[in-house]
Amino acid sequence: MIKVCFVCLGNICRSPMAEGVFKHLAAQAGRGAEFHVESAGLGGWHVGEAPDVRAQKTARQHGITLTSTAQKFNAKDFARFDWVLALDTDIEDGLRRLAPTPAEAMKVRLLREFDPQANGDLDVPDPYYSDAHAFEQAYAMIERSCANFLGALRDKT
Fold first, then answer.
1. Pick the catalytic residue: 5, 13, 14, 144?
2. In angstroms, what CA-CA distances link 77 with 7, 41, 48, 84?
3. Sheet holding 35-41, edge to edge
4. Domain ranges in the chain?
5. What is the DSSP letter of 79?
6. What's the rounded Cα separation, in Å, for the pair 143 and 124?
7. Which residues, 6 or more positions from 143, have their beta carbon under 8 angstroms from its beta carbon?
8. pTM here?
9. Superfamily (CATH H level) for 2-156
10. Catalytic residue among 5, 54, 126, 146
11. What is the pLDDT of residue 119?
């Protein structure tokens, strides 16, 4: 089983959408049982909370229900995952500093590395202080990235 964790700042907007999208795409491809997928935040402000209602609404408009509860990513979590996918470069930097070993730091990648439309911009902008359009834009980036990440994992197995 491949273990994946999507990480953003507070685990209520971007990373829960990424978790939901990836699970949905894997299930549609008949590969859901191959993965254990979670999401987390670098900060612990929202631990125990459901995803932001705007993230839930955006996902629901695409046929996806977000069921995760916010949790904080800790150094010990590196041992639990094969892939730790950061939603922006600040999160990537924070995760690499948090990693207990260089080998575990190598598990950290930017989700948009898998987005064919990234054009060098590897951040999924945080829509928290923005509007519904920003959530939709973040969703589109996440969906493209997750689809290509799933394809990359298929090609490696």
1. 14
2. 11, 12, 17, 9
3. 35-41, 2-8, 83-86, 108-110
4. 2-156
5. G
6. 11
7. 21, 25, 62
8. 0.97
9. Response regulator (3.40.50.2300)
10. 126
11. 93
- Inter-residue contact 22 to 37 (CB < 8 Å): yes
pLDDT, tens digit, 9 for 90 and up, residues 41-88 = 999 999 999 999 999 999 999 999 999 999 999 999 999 999 999 999
Burial class (CB in 10 A: 0-12, 13-18, 19+), 41: buried
* Inter-residue contact 84 to 95 (CB < 8 Å): yes
Q: Is 13 a catalytic residue?
A: no
5, 8, 13, 146: which one is catalytic? 8
* DSSP β-ladder status, 35-41 and 2-8: parallel
Task: Establish whether 77 is a catalytic residue.
Answer: no
Percent of the chain with pLDDT over 90: 97
User: What per-residue confidence (pLDDT) applies to 154?
Assistant: 83
Residue range 111-120, pLDDT digits in tens: 999 999 999 9
126 catalytic? Reply is yes
d(CA 150, CA 73): 22
